[in-house]
Amino acid sequence: MTYCIGLKLNHGLVFMSDTRTSAGVDNFAVSKKMFTWEVPGERMITVMTAGNLATTQSMISLLEERSKAVEERDPSILQEKTMFQVARLVGATLREVIDDTTSDGQLKQAQFSASVIVGGQIKGGKPTVFLIYPQGNFIEITDDTPFFQIGETKYGKPILVRAYDPEMSFEDAIKLLLVSFDSTVKSNLSVGLPFDLQVYDADSFKTGASRRIDDTDPIYQAISQGWGDALKDAFLQLPAYKL
């Protein structure tokens, strides 16, 4: 399992993913789940993956291979003219990998399933984010649905729903995502540090600040401890239900 979030603000996008791919009593594995393609001044595209690792790695490898030599590779994530077309390409590539891997019915297909968040901006269009399903179809982010999650979503969603504001700064958005991720890490062993973080300033057409956050990061530790203490204080201040 994994946990990834793509969030849209009025002034840009924020992406965050964990890196855990397996978890057991004595076996923890880490793998990158966030990938970026950019042509400075023209486009910036970020893809995050969740699901079967062989499926997602094959999909990323195909997208990467087909973008190496633009004149020879078609279709290419660097050639699509809109983010909608990029989402269609990523969805088709995901479906291609699943179909090539699984020819023995729906049960086997479910074992190799995956989902994807793709976001960014291409010159002439607005920053946006898409959620792509294993079948290759997708939906686009809206004002009513300003963020997408994939993987282990249920533990980290409540704080996003309650605290999100489209006008919030990148710094506050990152704090919000860290609380969401911290809540998930404390509830599910299959999600874990380090986290990969990336921000994108609208109309910059280049990768913004990026960072890998591990368990020694002092800001993350302060947020984790502070959020736990704040929840305890808030609970104690609530009225008791008298019988």
Summary?
This protein is about 35% helix and about 30% strand. With about 240 residues, the protein is α+β, with helices and mostly antiparallel strands.
Q: What would your notes on this structure say?
A:
It is a single chain. The protein is of the alpha+beta class and 243 residues long. It is 35% helix and 28% strand. It has helices at 53-68, 83-101, 106-111, 157-163, 170-185, 218-237, and strands at 3-9, 12-17, 20-23, 28-30, 34-39, 43-51, 114-122, 128-132, 138-140, 147-151, 195-201, 210-213. Helix 4 runs antiparallel to helix 5 (170-185) and helix 5 packs across helix 6 (218-237). The model has no long low-confidence stretch (mean pLDDT 93).
Main β-sheet description:
5 strands, antiparallel
Count, helices: 6
Structural class label: alpha+beta
Radius of gyration based on Cα positions: 19 Å
DSSP, total strands: 12
Mean pLDDT: 93
Q: Give the overall form.
A: globular
The neighbouring-strand order within the major sheet is: 10-1-2-11-12
Low-confidence stretches: none
Order of helices and strands: EEEEEEHHHEEEEHHEEH
- % residues in beta strands: 25-35%
